[in-house]
Amino acid sequence: MPNYGDPQYWDQRYKEQEGTIFDWLEDYEAIEPLLDDIFQKRQDYSETDLTWRENLRILNLGCGNSILPEEMYDKGYKNIYNIDISHVVIEQMAKRNAINRPETLCVDGSYMSISYGTPENRVLHYKRPHLKFTVSTFEIAPEGKKSQDAVHYVYVCKKQEGAEEQCAINWAQVQQQIKKEECDDLLEDSDQDEEESKKDISDSSKLE
Ligand SMILES: C[S@@+](CC[C@H](N)C(=O)[O-])C[C@H]1O[C@@H](n2cnc3c(N)ncnc32)[C@H](O)[C@@H]1O
Predict the structure, then answer these.
(1) What is the domain range of residue 48?
(2) When comparing pLDDT for 114 and 85, which is higher?
(3) Which pLDDT does position 100 carry in this prediction?
């Protein structure tokens, strides 16, 4: 059985499933009557004026790439905090919602990512032109482990005034750039595979 507590397992899984949506068990439509029953007990509850939904602060622990929090956001639940052990899925979800649900992080709000990823290959993503963050990087050596490999990096990205406007202006260009980088990576991988299979053939002919 896979190790569901291992962030690397989830990172790998979400990389492979990039662009897909997977809802474990129930969607919003299925749980809406239940939520209504629960929230009817609130003093500010109203069937017609749904502003009470904006007042709720919801923590979605282990959000994955499910569509549920997006459906809830669109139904008026604007304060949903989606967290996940996998930085890969958090980055994918941040991209997926950058335009239509940009209030996920308010101005002056901070996004924090705890990751094995080093600053050389992480910070560039937080500094993409559609984002207006100040980025602070910290290192934590996990208790009991001393080697450089074991270091965990913490990235704290604080959203600046004007971030939404900047996102609206630059998002299309960034999207294209990301697609191009993904194609380049695929080409590089297939070049490497080709090199390796040529090497295998020449190694095996040396043995014959
Ligand atoms: C079974 S999936 C559920 C995803 C989503 N909630 C859904 O219903 O479709 C479990 C999610 O929990 C995340 N996860 C596992 N351990 C976690 C932890 N300790 N803290 C936060 N998220 C965790 C995984 O990365 C994965 O996205």
Answers:
(1) 1-104
(2) 85
(3) 76
Beta bridge partners of 136: 156
180 in any annotated domain: no
The domain tally of the chain equals: 1
Judge if the beta carbon of residue 71 lies within 6 A of ligand 1.
no
Query: Would the CB of 10 count as within 6 Å of ligand 1?
Result: yes
Q: Tokens 């208790």 identify what position? A: 143
User: For the whole prediction, is pTM greater than 0.70?
Assistant: no
Helices 7-16 and 87-97 cross at an angle (nearest 10°) of: 40
According to the model, what pLDDT value does residue 132 have?
92
- Among candidate residues 124, 57, 62, the one with its CA nearest the CA of residue 93: 62
Inside any domain, residue 118? no
Q: How far, in Å, from the CA of 85 to the mean position of ligand 1?
A: 7
Q: Tens digit of pLDDT for each residue in 64-76?
A: 999 999 999 999 9
Query: Is 53 within a domain?
Result: yes
Regarding the beta carbon of 63 and ligand 1, being less than 6 Å apart is answered yes
> What CATH number is attached to the domain comprising 84?
3.40.50.150
